[in-house]
Amino acid sequence: MTTVSEELRNVAPEKLAVEGVSKTFRTQRGHVHALDNVSLNVREGEFVCLVGPSGCGKSTLLSIIAGLESTDSGQVLADGKPVTGPGRERMVMFQESALFPWLDVLGNVLFGLKLKPNLTGKERREVALFYLKLVGLENFIHANIHELSGGMKQRVALARALAPNPRVLLMDEPFAALDALTREQLYGDIQRIWAERKKTIIFVTHNVREAVCLGDRVVLFSPHPGRIQEKFEIKLPRPRDINSVDLAKYSTEITRALKRHLKPETTEVAE
Questions:
Q1: How confident is the model at residue 269 (pLDDT cuts 50, 70, 90)?
Q2: How far apart are CA 87 and CA 124, in angstroms?
Q3: pLDDT, tens digit, for every residue of 8-58?
């Protein structure tokens, strides 16, 4: 049997290799070429942000890495092994919290622990409480979901994604719908949690400043079909303040690079 202390220890983060991945979706209106020959290596424990306009395939790539979508060609390797389907080693956090309204805060996090069959009910509760404390919700464990603010819902979703102790956390614009103040608070929290729990994180956004605030590396995608155009190493100390002058310099540089790759009809990218 797995003990709680063993369950809560940091696991080794995975390294990821995206090798020549292409993906086309077939719709009633025709074919949508989402990704074209995308290759990317992600180091163990690295925080990588994928940036680009809407429709550039960032979320599609995230789903492929998670094992939720298949490729037309190419492959994704996790520690050298092909990703063939979803698993608890790679958990996803979406833009919408996707919480179950009939469960309270604790119940939603416990639901994520169903992936851990070797834990008893008491042990699952201990693990769930650990992660709720990690995201600052230890005083709201019995709150109903409809009573929570948008930021609190995303904290619950984050705790639920972390509870199975994955080696990779995949985040698909999780803060896009939140107000600026709440986002700033969460930027600090996610940096702290990443440092404490040693996860490999891939974070999708079209907010350049957000990407610079969070990422070790920012990867720029071009639209229709999605291709990687440039990569930027962000050499700033942590924790980072999204309003800092040094961060703004990186943001300006990356925004200029993005605009060079945009077509006239492409959705604007936030600085």
A1: low
A2: 19
A3: 888 889 999 999 999 998 877 777 888 999 999 999 999 999 998 887 889
Residues 6+ apart with CB under 8 A from 157: 93, 94, 97, 98, 99, 174
CA distances from 149 to 128, 138, 155, 177, 263 (A): 20, 15, 10, 11, 37
CA distance 155 to 219: 25
Q: What is the DSSP letter of 9?
A: S
| Mean pLDDT, the chain, whole residue set | 90
- For residues 96 and 110, what is the distance between their CA atoms, to the nearest angstrom? 19
Residue type for 70, please? S
Domain boundary assignment for the chain: 13-99+169-261
Please compute, for residue 71, the number of CA atoms within 13 A of its CA located in the half-sphere on the CB side. Answer: 23
Output the CATH code of domain 13-99+169-261.
Answer: 3.40.50.300
| Residue 75: its H or E element | strand 73-78
